[in-house]
Design a protein that fits this description.
The complex is a heterodimer.
Chain A (H helix, E strand, L loop, with lengths): L8 E5 L4 E6 L9 E6 L6 E6 L4 E2 L4 E4 L5 E6 L8 E6 L3 E2 L2 E2 L9 E6 L1
Parallel strand pairs in A: 1-11
Antiparallel strand pairs in A: 2-7, 3-4, 3-8, 5-6, 6-7, 8-11, 9-10
Chain B lengths: L3 E4 L2 E4 L5 E7 L5 E7 L5 E9 L2 E4 L6 E3 L9 E3 L8 E8 L8 E2 L3 E5 L1
Parallel strand pairs in B: 2-11
Antiparallel strand pairs in B: 1-3, 3-8, 4-5, 4-9, 5-6, 7-8, 9-10, 9-11
């Protein structure tokens, strides 16, 4: 997997936007960036993914820099239930086809406070 | 509801016993995976299967076995050869091919006493 670097922790006030950065400077041209989050004792939840263009869904927005070496996950209006560990992942590829190995690092612990 | 179902959620076993964790998906996904997570750590891949009747070892396959007789099912057996089996086990699935999202079940806690 392309190595990713995330800050270990971040705080955010409820109702404000949470901006979570990720560096992936060794990403290849055909590799996607995925974001997941995990609440304690639950399975990781898929949030969003992208290749080159910015993406938005009902949960979040993903901003990818033009050189693709970094990205930012944006939760536009954070709630207390968004408190979780957020993982930025660039999955392994083998022979041009992803075989699904997701390398979860330490992620960013996001704490949303009232 | 469509999704990935793992059972049981919590399991206690005596040391030396084999135990099988169930994983069923109704998402029509070809690929399925098993991960292990230790407290405060990231996920590590145990086994994965891209198609029925075929599976591959991941990074930490020793002491584990799997089968893939049906598309919907990918059970994991934790054998007595696994030295530290107490962990949180996560099953996942996806369509095959590049860029396909992997979805996870809710996990199974295995405690060996």
């Amino acid at each position: 997997d392309a190595k990713t670097t995330q800050p270990p922790s971040m705080d955010c006030a409820e109702g404000r936007a949470a901006n979570l950065p990720c560096n992936h400077s060794t990403i290849s041209g055909n590799e996607y960036v995925y974001w997941y989050r995990q609440i304690h004792s639950q399975g990781p939840q898929y949030i969003i993914h992208g290749l080159k263009n910015n993406e938005t869904n009902e949960m979040a927005s993903l901003i990818i820099t033009e050189d693709r070496k970094s990205s930012t996950l944006i939760l536009p209006h954070a709630t207390l239930r968004d408190t979780a560990v957020y993982y930025c992942i660039v999955p392994s590829r083998r022979g041009g086809t992803s075989y699904g190995k997701l390398t979860f690092g330490q992620g960013t612990i996001l704490t949303v406070h009232p | 509801d469509g999704g990935i179902t793992q059972s049981p959620k919590y399991l206690f076993r005596k040391e030396g016993q084999n135990v099988t964790l169930s994983c069923e998906q109704n998402l029509n996904h070809d690929a399925m995976y098993w991960y292990r997570q230790d407290p405060g750590q990231g996920l590590r891949l145990i086994y994965y299967s891209q198609i029925v009747n075929d599976f591959q070892k991941g990074d930490i396959a020793e002491g584990y076995s799997v089968s893939r007789e049906k598309k919907e099912s990918f059970p994991l057996t934790v054998t007595s050869a696994q030295k530290n089996p107490t962990a949180f086990y996560l099953c996942a699935s996806s369509h095959r091919g590049a860029g396909n999202t992997i979805y996870f079940g809710e996990g199974s806690w295995l405690t060996v006493v």
